[in-house]
Amino acid sequence: MDGARSPALRSAALSVLILALILLVWHLATRSGAEPSTPKVSMTAEEIEYAKMLGKDVRSYCLLGDGETEEGNVWEAAMAAAKFKLDNLLAIVDWNTLQGGVTLEVMPSLEPYVLKWQAFGWHVIEINGNDVASLLRSYEEARRVKGRPTVIVARTAKGKGVSYMENRPEWHGGVVTKPLYDQAVAEISARLDWMQTRESKGA
Q: What does the alpha-carbon distance between residue 138 and residue 101 come to, in Å, rounded to a whole number?
């Protein structure tokens, strides 16, 4: 009986230890004014609750990939964040419809995506994620929301601005050679020059 319980007890103890270490690192970092980044909504929600315990007023941002939100722990954390009314939590989903070198059409369907977040009690802002002005406006809107967390669903094109990469799933983990690198830099630089010229003319 003891032998059967040992692995479960060791696993539970390890989980508690990992959480304690996360909170310790966060506490030490925030004492100096720094805000560490974390990869999951669940960890970010834990940080916010810990900050409240310390009487700190923080705002946390959590960047998610669309494929990442197929994971159950994301939705568990989404439920908890809404329950505890974490209005200082902002999640940003990079919705580029590409995952692991394939399109999302061949993966489990996440639609209706916006309705899912709304059903979990979040304020949802849907934008063109390649439009910086839209991003900035959505950040300001999120700050005005009270009583619930906010998620920005940013519809993006992976590899935006680089002709051979844009919306090409094979570039999820592709290798850029020196000629391709030079081509990408040239295309992006030309785009920036065009935007600066357009702005200077007041267009």
A: 29
